Amino acid sequence: MGFARQHLRLGKPVSLRKYFLRRVTRLEPPYILNLVFCALVAFFYYHQALGYMVPHLLASILYQHNLVYRTPSAINGVTWSLEVEIQFYILAPLISLLFRISSVWARRSVFLGLIAIIGVAQILLHANATVAALTIVFYMQYFLAGMLLTDLYLTVRPRVRTHWAWDILSLCGWPAVFLVSRDFLWFHAILPFLIMPLYIAAFQGVAFRAFFSNLWIATIGGMCYSIYLWHFFTIGVFFKLTRHLIMFHDFLLNFSLQILALGIPIATVSVLAFALIERPCMDPAWPRKLWQFLRHKAA
Length: 299
What we know:
Strand content: under 5%
Distance between the termini: 42 Å
Mean pLDDT: 92
Number of strands: 0
Structural class: mainly alpha
Radius of gyration: 22 Å
């Protein structure tokens, strides 16, 4: 948003120093604490060898596990996507130069063209079978779609009213997002074009705008980083218990009860992680405040 405002001349220039420092202070503490905790549990609870864990832990902390081992992190498997996001954060100042294209239609055509070309190129080059599938190369179309949405949000949305027609689009589109199989050859080529209008509908619809702005939904969305970091770990730990307690021959019943049983610890751990770790890091001034606190204690 900041880069778009800068290049579209809708706001002041972004300080790259503050931008990168904010990424570090906001994302690193929750991430590193999660990885260290997961590694300790793997060592003591799953009896993983220390010699095996340490190299994988260091590679994950440095966001290099995808590239070094060509597999998702052995410490916390879901963090493979965070390694991709970090690559975007580094490249964002350069990619955002596309906002400097003065012609509105030319700028948006470039975004749409790049999204389409990258998606099709991945299919033709079989990129999903290479290490590129674990880098931003395989997901660039999604980041470009987000940047195009930012363009529309800043320049078009202020002039457009909400309408029920967007809710109809949402009712049809959201099921399609979850029904399209990841095994479908054109999945990564068509999904950005399916998601973009649905995101617009979330802002411009009547019912869906009310739903997504609901306090509870917005609060859960605000905790997404903590949920993302801790849910997989929590499932792995607690499933060792629930799989012995919930054993029915009916798959659907068994699956439903497992979701209910695991949902409680996932919610509990995520809320605690958000309140105790992530929420304090959302304050941009927390390093300075912590330093002042420590100096005061030392004095």
